[in-house]
Structure formats: C-alpha cells, structure tokens
Amino acid sequence: MKLQIQAHSIITPASAQANGELVLSNDRKHPFNLFGKELYRYLSIQYPKFFKMDELCQLAFLGTELLTTHIENWNGDKVAIVLGNRSASLSSDKRHYQSIADRDNYFPSPAVFVYTLPNIMLGEMCIRYKITGENTCFMMDRMDAVFLYTYVRQLFEEEQYHYCITGFVNYSDDAYVGELYLVSSQKNTNAPLSRGFDKNFNQIIF
Amino acid sequence: MEVYSVADNIVSPLGADTAANYKACRGGISGIAKVDDSTYYPEPFYGAALNADQKKTIHISEESDFTFLEQLFIHSISDALSHTHDLDKKRTLLVVSTTKGNIDLLSDNYKGLVDKKRSELMTMARTIASQFELPHSPIVVSNACISGLSAIITAKKLIELGQYDHAIVSGGDMLSEFVVSGFQSLKAISDEPCRPYDTRRKGISLGEACGTMIITRDAELAKEKKQVSRILSGSQSNDANHISGPSRTGEGLKLAVQRALNQADITARDIDYISAHGTATVFNDEMEAIAFDALGMSNIPLNSLKGYFGHTLGAAGVIESIIAIKQMRENELIASKGFQAAGTSKDLNVITEMNAIGGCEYILKTTSGFGGCNAAVVYKSI
C-alpha cells in the first residue's frame, strides 16, 4: 500500500511551523500557556473548550489544527490517531496532587482529574475533528519513528483507514514538543506535502 | 498467521494466580470490601485492595528496590512464565498496559526507597523488563481503561508482522489516593459494592490488580494444551463525543465490535459469550446496552467482572480477558456479580447464576474508557 505524508506540523518553545513554514515565532520568550493562547488567536480558532484543556491537550489540539487546514471534511471513521508521548499527564498529575496534599484543604477537582491521562489529548482531537477510528497512545522516550511507522502501516493494511495522524506530543514543566504528521492512503491534490511514508519519516527536511 | 494466548496470571485481592482468582469468581466471592484507611481517602469507601496478608504471601515488601506496582508486575509475569516452556528472549517483547503506573511516587507522602523518575511509565517498564533479562525495549500503552485490550491488540499486530514470536502482555494499576480522590471528585464511586447493569447501580468500585498473558505464534509453548486459546481479531474506536462520558448512542463501541467481527470474518450471531466492560456507572452500562442491542447481540449471555475485581483500570482488559478465556475453556459462565434487576433501557442477557454450557467457540471482550475510546477483541477456542 502506498502511503504518503500529506502535512506536517511542529510546535516547540521556539516556534510553530506547518509544512516547513513558520507560522508563529516565540523564540522561547513566553511559556506555553501564553504562546499556546497566542497561536490559538493567531489561527482565528473558535473553540471555547480549548481553554478548559490542560497544556498537553492544547499542544496536540493546536498541532492538529495546523495539520488539517487543507481538509474540508473527512469521513471520521476512516481516520486513526497513533501518538507517542513520554511524560504522560505529569503536569495535570501534579495539579491534582496539589489539590489533595492538605487534608484540611482537600479540593480534588473533576476539571483537573479528567486530564490526568495522556490519551485524553487523542480524545480531544477526536471530538474536535469528528475522528472515530482507532486512537492509541504509546509511551516512548522520544519520537520512535521506526515503531510508529511499523504500527501505522500495519493499521492501514488491516483496517483500510484513509488517514492517520501520527507523531510525538509531550509536555512537561521544562520542555514541550508537538510534532505531527498526516499520513494518507488517498490522493489529495490540495495536500501541502506529498512525501513517501517510511521508517525515517521524521527526518523530513524542508 | 495464528496468534495464541498460551499462559496467564492474575494477581488481585482474590488470589495470586489465575486458578485462585477463577475459583473465587465462580464461587461468587468478591474482592471488594469497605476500605477504611485514610491513606487512600479521608472517608471510608468500597474498593478492592490487597491486604497486608495477601502482600506478604507474594513477598511484597516496602523495603524493596521495586515499587508496590512493580512487585505486582514482577510476580504476575514470573507466574505466567512458569506455565510455559522457555521463551527465546531475543524474540520476545514485553508490552505493558497501565493508566497511572507508579503514581504514588509523586505524592509528598511517599516514604519508600524508589527514585521519583520511575513515575515515568517507560522507566517503570524498563525496570520490569530488566528483571526478566528481556533485551528489547518494552512497549507501553496508556489508553485509559482500554489499555489492556490495546496492549493485546498491539502484541498481536507485532507478532503477525514477524517482528517478534512472543509477547508478554502485562497490565497493572494500583489503588491509590490519586485515583480514589479523583473518581470521588467525579462522584463516580458507589457507596456500596458496584452493581453492573442493575437498576440500583450507583457507580464504580475501584480495584487493584495485575494480569499477564503470554501471547505467541507457537501454541506448543503451553505446558498444558487446555491453556491455549486463539486471539482472532481486535479493533479500537473513539466516540468523538466527550472526554469523560460515553456517547449516548454507543456508536464508538458499535464500530469497534463491528470491525473486530469483520476482521474475524464472523457475525454477531457467532459470539457465544460477551465479557463486557460494565463499570456500573449509569451512563456506561446504558451506552453498552444500546450498542449491543443495535448490534443484535442483546440475547448473547453477558457479564461484567467488575463486581469481583472492581475497576482495575489498566489491568481490566487483561484480567477480564483471562477470566473470559477460562470460562470458555471450562465450558461454564460466571454470574455477573451485583446484578439483580435489569436497569438499562435496552435488554441485555446478563448472566445471573453460574451455569455450565455445552460449548463456547467465540467470545467477545469489550472495554471503553475516558477519552471516548473503545476496544473489542474476539477469542476463539482451540
């Protein structure tokens, strides 16, 4: 089966880029909670739920937004998401622990607790983009392109998906990265990229 | 290629191996009890936790270089491996399923010896893998409450691809202040032992457990032929509805089940028994009933094992698969503990008492979880 990378996005403390082009620069100036909101406004997104999400979900959400701008609509049950992540929901985990640290001031909050799982970012992507295919979150130290390639290719072979969003999204207090790839089995002349999908797919050079 | 489960283990408050856990379930014994221990929660609640004697039996120690959860994993994997002939470790992959791993390490109250770094799930998994001298880096799946089935599906895929011949799939989660306080804040915990599908159900009971399945392309690895079952197919989906509540329509679960049936090239009518998710929340059980009804599966005998183990999160898909397979091998179906009167808008054929059956060829195991995810796996008897 011929699979192509049709779009790419990467968000780091330095900048947000889509398909090799700078979208918004940050130069490590602002922490993610400010840079992320700036990017949200810059992209003119109307999605108030964004502000309820934790940082990990916001990162995955914004990365997906950059990845899918050329797609007008898709058949959500033909779309899968397979992501790598390292630090799980560490930031929300700490927040939840803070709320239960003091027995005299015990205030665990459902609005925090629901974000204490790394796969919630995939859930948020599914809700926003009406994706009902497989979504799996693997833990890995860094983006393991060989593993993701192998798994995603097998998924396309077995379940006839049209698209799969794959990559590595991680957020911890001192570092973050959201690196996403839109892989497709379908021809799309509107797609910003058309590059082969292989086990070195993350060594994409623009 | 055919992929099999050839050996397994469950360690839970009901026992330290599969046989003990199965015996308890078929005898109607539950691991859920009142937990009156403020290290979990300021007020008493119902849950399934290993007590001090049970921990002692399997040599779990607070002075260990391993965390409590790691010790559970190591016990579970060691016991499962003892039921097979030797695996070629170079051809064996460890797949770990967990939601919160060593979350206790991040608590200010943690008094043990283990470095906080092991709260990272990959670091925990590598620690476990090194104990068994497995040369390959482990795979860790963290997909909320479907993690266990995700891990089984992943292992099957990688074996079929020829990357490995065998996989040790191990799912585990502990009962912790972290999860108890969180589910209490969601008002999701029942004030009595959970009652899946019952009209009076009031929510979940949490549990802790670890389960391990040895998955392989070589059915001869089993020490006993009777241990073997085939993993026929598996699929996952998302509701795309809400991050902490299932869809009202069950669309996501329907999609996962339908895909798993299609992959197996069978129809809903071929399934002899369903081991469902059945958390005993109002919404989850209702969603499942709607999905199974729409799939034409409402007459198929079904149970939830949450009344025995509680909801064991990352362990659930694995330990419930093991008990489901055991029922298939023993030709008997276990009562869905806590169920008395139907409490869903669509009928389900909930098993009310333990009964012997003539045969059981195909079983369906399903799970659903936070983030809107669903998974379905079909097992076949040999």
Total strand count of chain B, please?
Answer: 16
Helix proportion of chain B: 25-40%
Q: Looking at the structure, what is the overall shape of chain A?
A: globular
Low-confidence stretches of chain B are: none
H and E order of chain A = EEEHHEHHHEHEEE
Query: Strand-and-helix sequence of chain B, N→C?
Result: EHEEHHEHEHEHEEEHEHEHHEEEEE
What structural class do you assign from the helix and strand content of chain B? alpha/beta
Per DSSP, the total helix count of chain B is 10
Calculate Rg of chain A over CA atoms.
17 Å
Distance between the termini of chain A: 25 Å
What strand order characterises the main sheet of chain B? 5-4-6-8-1-9-16-15-10-11-13
> How many angstroms does the end-to-end distance of chain B come to?
15 Å
Our estimate of the beta-strand percent of chain A is 15-25%
Number of strands of chain A: 8
Mean of pLDDT of chain B = 97
What does it look like?
The complex is a heterodimer of chains A (206) and B (382). Chain A has 206 residues and is of the alpha+beta class. Helices cover 31% and strands 25% of the residues of chain A. In chain A, strands 1, 2, 3, 4, 5, 6, 7 and 8 form an eight-stranded mixed sheet that branches. In chain A, a hairpin with a 2-residue loop joins β6 and β7 (175-184). In chain A, α1 (32-42) packs parallel to α2 and α2 packs across α5. The radius of gyration of chain A is 17 Å and the shape is globular. The two termini of chain A are 25 Å apart. The mean pLDDT of chain A is 96. Chain B is an alpha/beta fold. Chain B is built from ten helices and 16 strands. In chain B, the strands form three sheets. In chain B, strands 5-4-6-8-1-9-16-15-10-11-13 form an eleven-stranded mixed sheet, with helices on both faces. A three-stranded mixed sheet of chain B has the order 2-3-7, with no helix packed on it. Chain B has a two-stranded antiparallel ribbon with strand order 12-14. In chain B, α5 crosses α10 (316-330). Chain B is globular, with a radius of gyration of 19 Å. The interface between A and B is large, with 51 and 55 residues.
